[in-house]
């Protein structure tokens, strides 16, 4: 498979088309990026790398980080993790409050904000220094000591975090947040502010594509069954109320963030990362979705 040739062709086709959508204005610091930025990078399970565009420019992971937080929590707690949150698609926006009332404070899945806040609460209970320890976990996956949070982005979100404050307090009222909301939110804003470029992303998330993946310190990130399950949740919940659309158009498990990034996994083949900051109305990268749709069409490879 000539991945580079297909990446080049599809990249230029997408670039020649419209670039619709908006930056994530509700987090002011996220608007300081070039809306025309466009990057792709693929790392295969055998270690080959292919890319195009600004794939060495870091950007804000936002909800893509939720895959890393749930992976760490799953590694620590095993199946007990699912006592505090579900694995069902929500069919609602990522920051929706509406289902929590009916579901009595048990978020539908770890990829909506409500679920990610519960995961943050769990990590705070189990890590000595949550921010430092989570960062070390991310750095250890590929021995990439350069990874960091953006304090500017974390603070920017904190200043306008009214919805997340509401979500966290609402869940706490049902008893499903143990720590003080302020601490949980501070950790949450930090994990969302983690930055990577597309190359780093496609290398980092290989642990979900490769059965034999071992991190730098030779430790398994997730076992095979756990990796399968995280992929399953990405497939059904990774794009909130656009998850069905992504499965329909792309046919791979994936996860997006309002920084404009998307990662997608082809189990046993590759991890691909795309970045283009303009978002559609569901908060998913407009060009990222288009690129991946055409990429899986041209490679004729999907999990279905
Ligand atoms: N930090 C963002 C928020 O809580 C993450 C949302 C996203 O990427 N979908 O709103």
Write a structural description.
- The protein is an alpha+beta fold and 304 residues long.
- It has one domain (3-299): DD-peptidase/beta-lactamase superfamily (Beta-lactamase, 3-Layer(aba) Sandwich), CATH 3.40.710.10.
- The chain is 44% helix and 10% strand.
- The chain is built from twelve helices and seven strands.
- The strands form two sheets. Strands 2-1-7-6-5 form a five-stranded antiparallel β-sheet. A two-stranded antiparallel sheet has the order 3-4.
- Strand 6 (261-266) and strand 7 form a beta hairpin.
- Helix 10 (224-237) crosses helix 11.
- It is globular, with a radius of gyration of 18 Å.
- It starts with a helix and ends in a 5-residue tail after the last helix.
- 51% of the residues are buried.
- The mean pLDDT is 96.
- The structure holds glutamine.
- Residues 62-63, 94-95, 113, 157, 164, 192, 257-258, 283 line the site of glutamine (GLN).
What's the arrangement of secondary structure elements?
Elements: H1 3-16, E1 39-44, E2 49-53, E3 59-60, H2 65-77, H3 98-102, H4 113-126, H5 130-141, H6 151-159, H7 162-173, H8 181-193, E4 195-196, H9 198-204, H10 224-237, H11 243-249, E5 254-256, E6 261-266, E7 270-275, H12 286-299
Antiparallel strand pairs: 1-2, 1-7, 3-4, 5-6, 6-7
Helix pairs in contact: 1-12, 2-4, 2-10, 4-7, 4-8, 6-8, 7-8, 10-11
The structure holds glutamine.
Residues 62-63, 94-95, 113, 157, 164, 192, 257-258, 283 line the site of glutamine.
